Amino acid sequence: MRKLLLLGILFVLPFWMAAQTGGTTVFNFLAVPTAGRQAALGGKLLSVRDADPTLAVGNPSLLRPDLDRSLSLQCVDFFSNAFYGNADYIRSWDAGTFRFGVHAISYGRFDGYDIYENETGTFSAGDYVLTAGFGREIVPGKVSMGMNVKGILSYYETYFSAGLAVDAAASYYNDDKDFSMSLMATNIGAQFIRYDDEREPLPFDLQLAISRRLEHLPARFHFVFHHLTQWNLRFDDPTDPYLEYDVVSGEMKQKSGVERFVDNAFRHFILGLELEPAKVLSLQFSYNYDMRREMRLYNKPGAAGLAYGVTLHIRKFNVQYARVHYNTASVPNFFTLSTNLSTFIK
């Protein structure tokens, strides 16, 4: 009874939280994918239960004993001179399976000037996250739960901020049908040291991920639904050259109700496809409609919203590479290496 009550609380709690999106929140770097495979499949929640420890880094309900002593490392050549990296280690004990990680973004060094254009020296900027995660099966072979506790530090020149956030997740899986489903509420918490006098909310997101492998083909589909507590994700940019205006009133012409509904619905959805032509090789592809609508250039949309990657299993190592098209000018590369240290110990 206690286990069912905890599971119910986990699923109901996120709906009490206020939903926020980028532009109105702080610490938005928390949404950066933690592994190449995750980035290639849309950068959000994944529900697959396999030997890849990087999936449990992004989804704590996937932490389990067979991932004991797993280590994963990632580096990303982010935007401009920014660099992102993370290291995560998984350890299992009788109480459950734990994960410890550190994630950091360095934005490089900058030349500082005052309002009179006098040089004030160079300064740096960066964001850091220290994470402790926990996962455990609730219904053996069927349901598991997990959570991450994240300490957040951020500094830009003389501005400093800190916060605390929690991710709560639950997963259901059916190994016979190779089907899995996860629900996760991310970034439940607060900013307790502010940059200035204004306290800003964290980028809360409620996500649902569904994964199903095809029965007669070496392929798996991933369906991800995000920002489930906030329906309206649209933004009508007044600088959009394709917008139409009323010649009399000068006001922007609104799309029909059906068009707006369909546009909003697809903004919550990410489609991913994973192909496994061989045991040592898998290929990932995804399309994020919301990213394409928000990040494309009007005169040259390019491949914005698309992501793809490859995973190689080389002896005792798992090597992942992904490339994400945020827009024409921002196409970062994700490199991830993972292994299980117990394979090196006799």
Describe the structure.
The protein is mainly beta. The protein has a single domain, classed as monomeric porin ompg (Porin, Beta Barrel), CATH 2.40.160.40. The N terminus is likely disordered.
Topology (SSEs and partners):
Blueprint: H1 2-12, H2 36-40, H3 53-58, E1 70-77, E2 83-93, E3 96-113, E4 119-139, E5 143-156, E6 159-174, E7 179-193, E8 205-213, E9 219-225, H4 257-267, E10 269-278, E11 281-288, H5 289-295, E12 306-314, E13 317-324, E14 333-340
Quick gist of this model?
This protein has 346 residues and is mainly beta.
Rg from Cα? 21 Å
Q: Uncertain spans, ≥5 residues at pLDDT below 50?
A: 1-20
Tell me the CATH superfamily.
monomeric porin ompg
Helical region count?
5
CATH-scheme architecture: Beta Barrel
CATH topology: Porin
Q: H/E series, N to C?
A: HHHEEEEEEEEEHEEHEEE
Placed side by side, the strands forming the largest sheet appear as 1-2-3-4-5-6-7-8-9-10-11-12-13-14
Q: What is the multimeric organization of the chains shown?
A: single chain
The separation of the N and C termini measures: 42 Å
Q: Which shape, going by the Cα principal axes?
A: globular
Number of domains: 1
Report the mean per-residue pLDDT as an integer.
Answer: 87
